[in-house]
Specification:
globular; 5-stranded antiparallel sheet
């Protein structure tokens, strides 16, 4: 069973778990509030222990949270804390007890396991919707991990993108009054009550300024700033308790990432700076549009932008109605992200469909990609970016020695085959054969999804070992694959050629910057130009092969060959 070789599973001491046939005692990471015990057939003693520890957690976290001078109990609320603790306890108890009397590996076991996944995912979804804010943000993150979590979780949690909370008109007025010092009617000729969209941290309204300019007004939910740090603190306490029940799993990396990223996402001035930086960085792409920022009316909680509209990037029907080439959009999106990741090392890490719009320009007839929500970017270090470039070059060339080398340099260790499969969303067989040799088949796609659960312990181990920069890139990869899947445009040969171009340019630029010899710099530039020329020639060959002209040439050569004999 691929995606990883059998020998990889034999290197660790095996044990059974509810997600698949093989686990690792070294596994040490998992996502927040999703509990997968290493021995589902444990006794009722473990269940009682779970409830006892949950009760202790309630008392301990209550004392800690309300005794902490940085925590305002009026904002946090005992109900909010209690709800999270109760959900955690119920999910834990369900996994510990539901499967213990069923023969492992039987059809009944697999059926019940799926039911436990579904029940737990629904409980987690309900908790996120009720507690809002940071909880929805975490749930959305989990829902995007199609190839890393069981389908019951990702399918259930995806609805959080469309079920984000909405602030009332009075709450919006309050935030604008506090931050801009004026009432809405003093700032705008009109301000639509119904938001264009609502997310976990903010919502966006369409408005018209006094001078007639149409703008999008992004307003932060009033309580999310105060609650975010407390939510993270609550997660941290609960995860420490869960670790006592399931020592094999370690969750704290998620808390660490949230601590680092949430303050940046909640600072709209930072988002505005990111928008301007990426617009300048990718100014050569005439198909990319980034809304202009109106700084005079922007604060940490209010962001005024140029109003832009279009269809969501995963809406194939919208593109067909408006005469937009779906394949062109998919290629251009790939170009954008290859440029951000490999060349610039400054990556927009939240490309879910609501943040990427498409629109056909009436004047030019060209299709534009509109990139929104610039709060979350990952800055890649130079050494990480170079290793990542060389790893992708090795994957495209099916150079397994270099795949192993650069995967291990990025922290994958002996799990490098699994790492390669996670990056490419291809089976190990396809990686060995060459990921550009054939498209993803329906059977391979199903195989990858079904096997994700079987290798979850190894996946969690990888997530704990790779650099923190890799975590957001993996999330970004999954979001982009979700868009490709919706458009039915999974990675083609041309997309890998664009990636190759970016990798060659990035590595050559890095080598020139490190060289002091003029002759060596010229040599690097010549090699770069030759490699890019070879890619262009191969791309021309592919175009001719697929075009009508190419068909005529091939038919002519075939007739000439037969007439000779």
């Amino acid at each position: 069973m691929v995606p990883i070789p059998t020998r990889l599973c034999q290197e660790s001491k095996s044990y059974t778990n509810p997600l698949g046939t093989v686990g690792s005692k070294r596994s040490s990471v998992q996502y927040s509030f999703i509990f997968f015990p290493s021995d589902i057939q444990g006794s009722s003693v473990m269940a009682r222990r779970a409830l006892k520890l949950a009760s202790l957690a309630a008392a301990a976290s209550g004392i800690y949270l309300y005794g902490n001078k940085f925590v305002d109990p009026n904002d946090f609320g005992v109900v909010r804390v209690g709800r999270a603790i109760a959900t955690t306890a119920v999910i834990t108890y369900d996994y510990l007890t539901s499967l213990r009397s069923v023969p492992y590996g039987s059809e009944e076991y697999d059926f019940l396991k799926s039911q436990v996944h579904l029940r737990s995912a629904e409980r987690l979804r309900d908790l996120c919707c009720t507690n809002r804010g940071t909880f929805i943000k975490v749930g959305q993150h989990l829902g995007a991990l199609d190839y890393l979590l069981p389908e019951e979780y990702t399918r259930t949690l995806k609805v959080l993108h469309s079920q984000a909370p909405q602030s009332t008109r009075q709450e919006i007025e309050q935030v604008i009054r506090e931050d801009l010092g004026k009432e809405i009617k003093e700032l705008f000729l009109s301000f639509e009550d119904t938001p264009l969209g609502a997310a976990s941290l903010a919502q966006v309204h369409k408005a018209v300024l006094q001078d007639g300019r149409t703008v999008a007004v992004k307003v932060q939910h009033p309580k999310v700033q105060a609650q975010s740090s407390k939510d993270i603190l609550l997660m941290e306490v609960l995860l420490l308790v869960v670790k006592q029940i399931f020592p094999d799993f370690e969750f704290m990396w998620l808390v660490e990432e949230a601590k680092k990223n949430l303050p940046l996402e909640l600072d709209f001035l930072n988002e505005g700076r990111n928008a301007e930086k990426v617009a300048h960085m990718l100014k050569n792409f005439d198909f990319l549009k980034v809304p202009r920022i109106y700084w005079e009316l922007s604060t940490r909680r209010v962001l005024l932008m140029e109003f832009m509209e279009g269809g969501q990037v995963n809406d194939r029907a919208y593109m067909e109605r408006n005469g937009i080439d779906v394949n062109e959009i998919s290629r251009n999106l790939g170009k954008l992200y290859s440029e951000m990741i490999f060349v610039n090392g400054f990556v927009h890490c939240d490309p879910h469909p609501g943040n990427v719009l498409v629109k056909k320009c009436p004047a030019s007839g060209k299709a534009h990609i509109i990139l929104l929500d610039h709060g979350l970017y990952q800055v890649l270090s130079e050494s990480f970016r170079m290793d990542y470039c060389r790893l992708w070059q090795a994957l495209i060339k099916a150079d397994m020695k270099r795949v192993q080398k650069y995967s291990q340099r990025l922290g994958a260790g002996n799990l490098y085959p699994l790492f390669a499969c996670m990056l490419t969303a291809r089976s190990w067989e396809s990686v060995n054969r060459g990921i550009d040799r054939s498209p993803v088949s329906a059977s391979e796609d199903v195989e990858i999804r079904s096997n994700a659960a079987a290798y979850l312990p190894q996946i969690t181990q990888l997530l704990n070992n790779v650099p923190r920069q890799m975590l957001l890139l993996l999330k970004t990869n999954d979001l982009l694959r979700g868009i490709e899947s919706a458009l039915h445009t999974r990675a083609s040969a041309s997309s890998f050629l664009n990636m190759s171009r970016c990798c060659i340019r990035a590595v050559s630029t890095y080598q020139r910057s490190k060289s002091r010899s003029f002759y060596r710099k010229v040599q690097i530039s010549f090699t770069e130009a030759l490699s890019l020329w070879q890619i262009n020639l191969y791309e021309l060959f592919l175009w001719l092969k697929g075009s009508q002209l190419g068909s005529w040439v091939i038919a002519l050569l075939s007739r000439t060959h037969h007439s000779t004999y």
